[in-house]
Amino acid sequence: MPNPAPPADPIPVVWSPATRLHVPRHEVWLGVPTPGTEVPERVDEILGALGDHDLHEAVAHGDELLRVVHHPGLLEFLETAAAAWAREGYEEVVGQDRVVPYFFETPALVAGMEPTPPAALHARTGQYCYDTMTLVGPGTWEAARAAVDAALTAVDLVVGGQRAAYALCRPPGHHVTPLGYGGSCYLNNAAVAAEALRAAGHERVAVIDVDAHHGNGTQAVFWERPDVLYGSLHVDPAAGWFPHLFGHASETGAGAGAGATRNRPLPEGTGDGPWVEAVADLADWAAAGGATALVVSLGVDAAADDPESPLRVTADGYERAGRALGGLGLPSVMVQEGGYHLPTLGGLVAAYLRGHGDA
């Protein structure tokens, strides 16, 4: 009887101490300040569970690919908003030391007229931020930019010959569109990683998003492009879940990107069986679409104990998902997205990486 194949070496982990610098303190949800869940401690819980993996500190990269993904106005705003908020004295006037919008330039307000750009920072914030949950403070830009560097360093490892690499990105990024941030996300790490793989010579990259919530930002970045496939499984937005407007099965891309988007909305209470089946379906779709490299938006907030979604996935489900996507045999970059139950967070990430590495 042949000996079983030895387990694969643990997937290398890329991280940056600067990702701890973003401290949201609180969110404003339905007008009520509530404690933030996307906290710096997430970094240490994940690192603590990945002690057998080789750690690589993120290397600084230029902004070229970041500017392919995001409008320069968004980048300039995020880089300067916290200092401007402090300089203009909002903490003294209203007691709020974090940048948070209250006014949004919606089509209902504009009503077909040509708006004049707002002068006040508290009004300009609503041009870029589309919710009241995603506050900007001292260190937010530095942390978000370090997360991008982690994703790009993971790409470097894969382009350099590693089969797979994991980027411990924090804050997460898949809700960020070319011009707008929200959903506790500031810069789209997965989209930048996909652009980096394209720039390295991969003709078609698949981004598979297993976060509990639809990655509306990543979908928006690649909506009209055929060279990056975007597939997502997530709790059904029609049941009232963020991002509410997007993530329905009818959304399949537009223009040259028609058919390059695939959404698998799932009912509340979905557990391992149908959830892993949806992952496998997206893996088959990516393979059939001719992908030569893979980015996984690795949110683990579909887990049963997570406070941010009603899905019921276990660590075994995440390990099986890792095997399904790792089984594609593609150069792979895993980018951390959500996951907010600190006692189980690290173990869930480890389970996915174990499955992906052993496939």
What does the model show?
By secondary structure, the protein is of the alpha/beta class. It has a single domain, classed as Arginase, Chain A (3-Layer(aba) Sandwich). It is 37% helix and 13% strand. The protein has helices spanning 41-49, 64-69, 72-87, 90-94, 107-110, 121-128, 140-159, 189-199, 216-222, 272-288, 315-326, 342-358, and strands at residues 13-15, 26-29, 32-35, 55-57, 164-167, 205-209, 228-235, 261-266, 293-298, 332-336. The strands form two sheets. It has an eight-stranded parallel sheet, sandwiched between helices. The protein has a two-stranded antiparallel ribbon with strand order 2-3. Helix 11 (315-326) links the parallel strand 9 (293-298) and strand 10 (332-336). Helix 1 (41-49) crosses helix 12 (342-358). The mean pLDDT is 96.
Order of SSEs: EEEHEHHHHHHEHEHEEHEHEH
Unreliable spans: none
CATH class descriptor name: Alpha Beta
| Main structural class | alpha/beta
User: CATH superfamily, called what?
Assistant: Histone deacetylase domain
The overall pLDDT, averaged over residues, is 96
> Judging from the principal axes of the Cα atoms, what is the shape?
globular
Task: Estimate percent helicity.
Answer: 25-40%
| CATH architecture title | 3-Layer(aba) Sandwich
Strand order of the largest sheet: 4-1-5-10-9-6-7-8
Strand content: 5-15%
Structural domains: how many: 1
Enumerate how many helices there are, as a single number: 12
Radius of gyration, whole Å: 20 Å
> How many strand elements?
10
Could you say what the CATH topology is called? Arginase, Chain A
